[in-house]
Design goal:
The protein is mainly α and about 260 residues long. The protein contains nine helices and two strands, in the order αααβαααβααα. Bound molecules: zinc ion (2 copies).
Length: about 260
């Protein structure tokens, strides 16, 4: 048993090392191309997942009608994907220059790093999201995302370019401050897209019983962010409800009953 788990841990570390060795071997132009292809693939996967969740849980709609997709939305989403690619390019350059350190620790440290990264980003995004709702900033940066009073599969990407760059800068800052496990970074990035997609799916896939479970009810579900689109003075968090609960901005009741 002991040697099996040791073997599993070695495989994880080896896979992470091999992957990051591969990333390190790219030329700058190669990495630019890889980032663009990767980010458009992530966009496609998010839209597909959103569509699938929407169909699979169609009986648990949170809005009466989906937000129509406009030409302006499509342009902003396209710009957001380009800027996400830019963030990946800057992150890669900082890593290559030694400003970001990636480690390949044992599995338990990877799990801890996922928690650290998620926690730091959750808090940072809560703070910046509340700032973005300040009347001096709101109208020229964040109001565009809130033109979506309900949601559609590209709502996640309908952001002011400053917000996209701001999120990337926050992520890079955390990575520059804390040396993180390479596997943890990839897990975090996957979870981030998953949570963002879920938040804009327009349906609630989580079972109602989760609300009664101490830990599960702290997860930022679809109805949590839907609540923010409906009532923009509440639910500023992303991955968890912790900061909204702590700072008194949680919508009550947290998960309103599903709309017909
Ligand atoms: Zn949103
Ligand atoms: Zn907002």
């Amino acid at each position: 048993m002991r040697s099996e788990s040791f073997h599993g841990a070695s495989v994880t570390i080896l896979a992470s090392l091999t992957l990051y060795d591969w990333f390190a071997g790219f030329t700058l132009s190669g990495w630019v191309a890889f980032s663009l292809v990767g980010n458009f693939a992530i966009f496609g996967a998010s839209v597909a997942l959103c569509g699938w969740i929407g169909q699979r849980f169609a009986d648990r709609k949170l809005f009466e009608a989906a937000q129509p997709i406009t030409r302006g939305d499509a342009i902003l989403a396209f710009t957001a994907v380009l800027l996400n690619s830019l963030v990946a390019i800057v992150g890669w350059m900082l890593w290559k220059a030694g400003w970001i350190r990636i480690t390949h620790p044992a599995w338990w440290r990877t799990v801890l790093d996922v928690v650290i990264f998620l926690g730091a980003m959750d808090f940072g995004m809560y703070v910046f999201h509340r700032l973005a709702h300040h009347r001096w900033i709101y109208s020229w940066i964040h109001a565009r995302h809130h033109t979506h009073e309900s949601v559609n599969p590209i709502s996640l990407f309908v952001l002011n370019p400053f917000e996209v760059v701001g999120f990337g800068a926050l992520m890079i800052s955390v990575m520059m401050l804390v040396p993180l496990s390479g596997a943890a970074v990839l897990i975090y990035l996957t979870l981030n897209v998953f949570f963002g997609t879920l938040g804009h799916a327009g349906v609630e896939p989580f079972p109602e019983s989760w609300r009664r479970r101490q830990l599960l009810r702290e997860i930022g579900s679809s109805s949590f962010h839907a609540g923010h689109h409906r009532t923009p003075t509440t639910n500023f968090g992303f991955y968890t409800l912790i900061w909204d609960r702590l700072f008194g901005t949680l919508e009550r009741p947290n998960r309103p009953s599903f709309r017909p």
